[in-house]
Amino acid sequence: MTMTATQPTERPGTTQGYRDPFPRYPIPPGETAMIEVAAAHSNGLTPIVGERTDRAGLVLTPHTTGRVLHYSGLWCLTHIASGARVSPPASLLHTREALLWLENAGVDWDRTAADLHADPAASSTFHELYFALTGARETGRPLVYARTSLVNWPPLWRICHRGIVSPDGYDTYEHAAALAEDAVAAPGGVLHPDAVIHRDEHSPGWGLRCASIGCTDRDSFFPDDWDYGLPIVDSRAAVQQAAWNAGWRGHDETHWTCPDCTRHYH
Ligand SMILES: [Zn+2]
Fold first, then answer.
1. How many structural domains compose the chain?
2. Residue 133 belongs to a domain
3. pTM, whole model, 2 decimals?
4. Ligand 1 center–CA 238 separation, angstroms
């Protein structure tokens, strides 16, 4: 085997390429969402790296501002063909929500700036997004919600034995049945084989979950730290009060965000 002293200009076709600490070849387009665009400012164009989006014609870019351009720490959507800013500067989470907001607007952004200017639907969408996102920032709430927060908990399953119903309720029949089976099999178990599983007729109350599209733990409900992190299920008022005390914030009747997400809405 011979070794070569020259650097390859194309990525080797083996997994070796992925481990190269000093690569000199571009990552194939299918493996990166980054593209360079020319962002427009009043005094000209500047190169900037943007992230491709599902909205053809638009990229997500860092927002730049100042007499000498610098990153502001905020983000925006940029029109690839013209470099014009399509959304007002906002947090990364708010800007990703702006993309979802545009999904429903039905405007084709993959056109020249002249075409977009001539399209009344595009210009009204531009203005509506500006006001909607500015309003969301001012009030510290999401622009788009992923789900409703308050969920009426389904009736629980319980183990019933000789007319005595277990004080503990279970979310699924299987969960209650497994515990009943264990209790029956356990030596000296308190349950007899004639234990039955039955279901409550009423909901035990409400659970609260985060409404943000950015929530990493989207299926988890506001937990009770005193009860092994199980969801708090209580009256609407009680669960909302407990969540507020823990740093959750309510935005309207049905939408709340957890502390981690809430700090991205500013
Ligand atoms: Zn969250």
1. 3
2. yes
3. 0.83
4. 20
